[in-house]
Specification:
- The complex is a heterodimer.
- Chain A is α/β, with parallel strands linked by helices.
- Chain A is built from eleven helices and 13 strands.
- Chain A has five domains: 77 residues, Beta Barrel (OB fold (Dihydrolipoamide Acetyltransferase, E2P)), CATH 2.40.50; 135 residues, Hypothetical protein af1403, domain 2 (Rossmann fold, 3-Layer(aba) Sandwich), CATH 3.40.50.10550; 31 residues; 44 residues; 41 residues, no CATH class.
- Chain A has a five-stranded mixed β-barrel with strand order 1-2-3-5-4. A five-stranded parallel beta sheet of chain A has the order 7-6-8-9-10. In chain A, strands 11-12-13 form a three-stranded antiparallel beta sheet, with no helix packed on it.
- In chain A, helix 3 runs parallel beside helix 7 and helix 4 packs parallel to helix 5.
- Chain B has one domain.
- In chain B, helix 1 runs antiparallel to helix 2.
- The longest helix of chain B is centred in the middle third of the chain and has 24 residues.
- The chains are: A alpha/beta, B alpha+beta.
- Chains A and B meet through helix 3, strand 7, helix 4 and helix 8 of A and helix 1, helix 2 and strand 1 of B.
- Strand 7 of chain A pairs parallel with strand 1 of chain B, so a sheet runs across the interface.
Chain lengths: 423, 76
């Protein structure tokens, strides 16, 4: 047996199913065969231009007399065979449209029963069940027991998917497995599993492997959950939330009904108010009338009281300044005035006395008789008894009377002349 | 009428409540909607509680028939 590392060229796979190709490098080449039995063991397809590492035995092809290598095992160089197989299958199924969104179905809102395809032992199934019970107590779960690794795994998973679809009692299926290496996850990268998932009429959630690694199952499933727990959370609603949503809506319906009824009731009350029975109206008016009468009476009373108060006030004022009081006041005034009158009369009398006295003195002084006694005399005309004051008024021969201090004398003017001398 | 699901019932209930809250309904309409709403509400509540907790293992027998057996729930 020899190990050989080279590049495939001139690959031919005739109906026999054996693969014939050349393995070559820069300097040399050798014919190679891989029989159908060995070929089927490969996780990848041989391709022209592919570099591989193979284990085989050298033999001679007798009809031509050439050496050839019969490969027992081969794997792509530089990259794991599984990885290559994975990429190839992924590409193939993608091209077929198995991953396309138009084939994806929606998750049920509230699954009546959740089908879980997984190992009945181990942490995964327990995680799913505990989350299911926590979120929605009493939810029904059907477990389809399968081996999640090993040779039997693929067949069991495919059968479980088909059985679940056949029974048709699950509203959603979860295919679950904890994380693992690419080799561990091989069943979930298997083409048969992928096709079974694709053919499932029941919405399918794949929960395989790590958060970061995707399996073929993840791509085909309607939904991919990063972990089995996440799948349970994705699929199972929280019962209490639904309950409170229901209760909230019910409460709102009650309130809305109440408000509607209240509004209608108010409307009726309003209408009733506008529609008054005539008898009631009369009664109302009578009441109103009574009220008015009462008010009127009250007003009258109040007014009377007010007037009485005013009257009392006026009367007291009259009493205060009444005739008696006025009389006494006036009497006092009269007394004062009388006193004043008497006093002033007395003063006036006194003044007059004084004036009379003075006048008498003057009179005494100007009394002609007293002048006459001092030697003066008064000359009067006889005809008119006019006092002669000016000689010019006299004419000779005019009779005059001269009054002296003692007695009178009749005389005649001899001559008269005016003299400025006062004698 | 198609089989009523919880989701449909909840949607209908929501719609009814919104219509009722809009206040644009007559008394008869309101009563009808209210009655329907109450029925839906009851249906929803029932749906949430009706299921009996049941966890079963689904085993396919060699003759192709399926058998359900109770599953030991270690968390219960």
């Amino acid at each position: 047996m020899v190990w050989i590392s080279a590049e495939i060229s001139n690959l031919k796979v005739p109906s026999s199913g054996h693969a014939y190709f050349a393995l070559k490098d820069k300097n040399a080449q050798i014919a190679a065969v891989m029989f159908r039995g060995q070929l089927k063991q490969l996780k990848f397809d041989l391709r022209d231009g592919m570099s591989l590492v193979g284990l085989g035995r050298i033999s001679v092809y007798e009809p031509r007399g050439t050496y050839q290598i019969i490969l027992e095992y081969a794997e792509p160089m530089g990259i794991g065979a599984l990885q290559i197989a994975f990429e190839q299958l992924k590409q193939k199924l993608f091209d077929e449209g198995l991953f396309s969104d138009e084939h994806k179905s929606a998750l049920p809102f509230l699954p009546a029963r959740v089908g879980v395809i997984t190992s009945p032992t181990g942490a995964v199934v327990q995680d799913i069940l505990s989350i299911a019970q926590r979120r929605f107590p009493n939810i029904q779960v059907a477990i389809y027991p399968v081996r999640v690794q090993g040779v039997e795994s693929v067949g069991e998973i495919v059968a479980a998917i088909e059985t679940a679809n056949h029974i048709g009692r699950d509203d959603v299926l979860i295919l679950a497995r904890g994380g693992g290496s690419l080799e561990d996850l091989a069943p979930f990268n298997d083409e048969r599993v992928a096709r079974a998932i694709f053919n499932s009429k029941i919405p399918f959630v794949s929960a395989v492997g790590h958060e970061t690694d995707f399996s073929i199952a993840d791509f085909v499933a309607d939904f991919r959950a990063p972990t089995p727990s996440a799948a349970a959370e994705m699929v199972i609603p929280i019962k209490n939330e639904l309950k409170s949503r229901c209760a909230g809506l019910t409460g709102r319906a009650h309130r809305a009904m109440h408000i509607t009824l209240q509004a209608l009731r108010n409307q009726i009350v309003q209408s009733n108010r506008m529609l008054v029975h005539p008898g009631r109206r009369v009664q109302d008016m009578r009441l109103h009338l009574d009220q008015l009468a009462t008010r009127l009476r009250r007003d009258l009373l109040a007014r009377r009281q007010h007037q009485r108060a005013r009257f009392e006030q006026a009367r007291s004022r009259i009493i205060h300044r009444g005739p008696d009081r006025v009389l006494s006041l006036q009497k006092a005034n009269v007394d004062v005035l009388r006193i004043k009158l008497l006093q002033s009369t007395r003063i006036i009398l006194l003044k007059h006395h004084e004036r009379v006295g003075a006048a008498q003195a003057v009179l005494k002084a100007v009394n002609p008789s007293s002048i006459l006694k001092r030697g003066y005399s008064i000359t009067r005309t006889i005809a008119h008894r006019k006092v002669v004051m000016n000689a010019n008024t006299l004419y000779p021969g005019q009779p005059l009377e001269i009054q002296l201090a003692e007695g009178r004398a009749k005389v005649m003017v001899q001559s008269a002349s005016q003299s400025n001398n006062e004698d | 009428m198609a089989k009523l699901t919880f989701e449909k019932a909840l949607e209908q209930l929501e719609k009814i409540v919104e219509t009722m809250e809009s206040g644009a309904l007559s008394l008869e309409q309101s009563l009808k909607q209210f009655e329907e709403g109450m029925q839906l509400s009851q249906f929803c509540a029932q749906k949430l509680d009706e299921t009996e907790k049941k966890i079963s293992l689904i085993m396919e027998k060699t003759d192709g028939t399926v058998e359900e057996i109770p599953f030991e729930d270690h968390n219960a």
